[in-house]
Amino acid sequence: MLVSRRRGVSAALALSAALAMVAGATSAHASTQPRIKVEQGVTQPVFSYADAIREYVYVESSVDSDGDGANDRVRVDIIRPKESDQGLKVPAIIDESPYYDNSGRGNEAERKTYDADGNPLKFPLFYDNYFVPRGYAVLNVDMIGTTRSDGCPDMGGKADVLGGKAVIDWLNGRAKAYDADGDPVKAGWSTGKAGMIGKSYDGTLANAVAGTGVEGLATIVPINAISSWYRYQRMNGLVYNFNYPSYLTNVVDTDPDAKCAAVRTALDAAAGDDTGNYNAFWQERDYLHGTISDVRKVRASVFAVHTLNDLNVKTDNLSTWWDALGDRNVPRKIWLGQYEHVDPFDYRRDVWVDTLHRWFDYWLQGVKNGIMHEPRADIQAGPDTWITQKDWPAPHTDKVALRPAADGTLGLAKADKGTTATFTDLRQSENAMTADVGTPAAGRAAFTTGELPADLRMSGTPEVSLKVTLDKPTSNLTALLVDFGEEARVDWRSGGGITTNTDETCYGESTEADDACYRTTTTRVATRPLEIVARGWIDVQNRDSLTTSSPLPAGESGTVTWDTLPQDYTFKQGHRLGVILAGTDSSYVRDAATGAAVTVDLSKSRITLPLVSDRPGGPGFGGKHGWHGPARVDLPTPQARLF
After folding, report:
1. Is 276 left (phi over 0), alpha (psi -120 to 50) or beta?
2. What is the pTM for the complete model shown?
3. Segment 36-65, tens digit of pLDDT
4. Which range is the signal sequence, renumbered to this chain (predicted)?
5. Which residue, 354, 392, 425, 614, is the most exposed by fewest CB within 10 angstroms?
6. Residue 30: pLDDT above 50?
7. Which CATH number fits domain 53-389: 2.40.50.100, 3.40.50.1820, 3.50.50.60, 3.40.190.10?
8. Is 310 a catalytic residue?
9. How far is CA 418 from CA 46, 164, 386, 402, 421, in A?
10. What number does CATH give the domain 402-488+529-612?
């Protein structure tokens, strides 16, 4: 027994020692496991950018956009910490773009570059330099039909949307991907969580993919992005550009023209330029209530960024998307600048990088940093002034109806019954429409308030309602809301509102092939006697429906009600607020004028403004007969910025 007991004790001691060694080894192994480091509420740059894995895969989509009998494969260029091959799981930040080999990305038009084996060397923009060292993968995805992906682009339609969705599915094991040799590749390094970001078309793809409800897309950051391609190219039956689908898809596709020529022709034919109506083509490209993407399916949080003077991706794309997200209680945040088609990296750089960092940390890394407890909306109130508020439009906004009068004044009182104003639907520029207000002109009717007794802020979407009679079956109508008053404003009409400097600031780590440094910018400011604050257009035939044209019989009156583009703008004390009613706006609308004589019943017409003010009326708000605006107006038309 003694021997047996001693043997038992010896065995127990040996087992105990062995277990201790295993435990110690496990503990040591655990202590060396790579992990994300968080300090002061944000992830820290503890992973080497220079040593990061750079690779690419081809994800198989569910569409055959070029009709070659095989599903299109989507090229995905990936950079991720080397530790993600050693057990570290990382989320993905995705910028899907059609611009990587044509216009490039960002203010400096950066393009991808590759090594001799086709592996990516340079990832445009700062996302890779900044976020990879903090424990993220960054994926630059070539939209179907562009750069190194298969297929044909289809301007926001099925191929565009489902190509990006396939990448999210691959990260979550639901889609296949292949390497250059055709061997299957799995995303074993992925946590399954992804965020999509990008400006213009890139941000549009983020909206579109989110609207599919794909699981794993945790957040999107759409910057100056489209939510409805109809709104991008139409307003209430009027056309901004003819044959635009073939134009844009050809711009982004650098393959030989013949490859996708038939697809481009079919896109133009389906768009319906002859009527300007909303049809099945546009419904496929509608991410609010579309056939492929629908806001009601959105699972991702949304950090929406837009510039209020963007006349490329106009602000109704932002406002309708934002409101629809709010109706569904989608977690969301918004920034609104006073520039044209410009990225926040180029007008509020330090604050932007910090805010984006905390946003991605919260939604992709699970860092509790309080960002969702901050005010939801950041609004630029002046060239150097930003305000924060609970939401946008500003809470407690009053809808105030301003009424035009026969003497050219604009106030709160209705015009006398039977008073009218008449103009002809001519094709003319906004400069012509706003010049020499106070002097009668055949192509417009103009109305102004008196000098404002105090600053007056408008936040949201003005609505125009006119009772009109035509002498022809239809007319194009324009409504302009104008601030008459000398003021230094952001000069969004020139260079988007920024000047690019020669010095640089750096965000993240660099390599010889991919540096993290970008030229700084300065806000442009111009002092002018007026500014067009909001604008909106309609074809009278579309007064009742966007899908069906309905002529207004000559001599019969009808009510035409439509929204202008939204804005957030402060009219300064002493300025005058003006409303211009006219026909065809040659500055932005391509339709021909009808030549119709338009008679407006002033007693039954109004423009309703969302005003942030306890008492928007009061002494001096009404107009004074006989006031004249600048005799000549020379507001530069901004150069189109597609990307």
Report:
1. left
2. 0.94
3. 999 999 999 999 999 999 999 999 999 999
4. 1-30
5. 614
6. no
7. 3.40.50.1820
8. yes
9. 75, 57, 46, 18, 10
10. 2.60.120.260
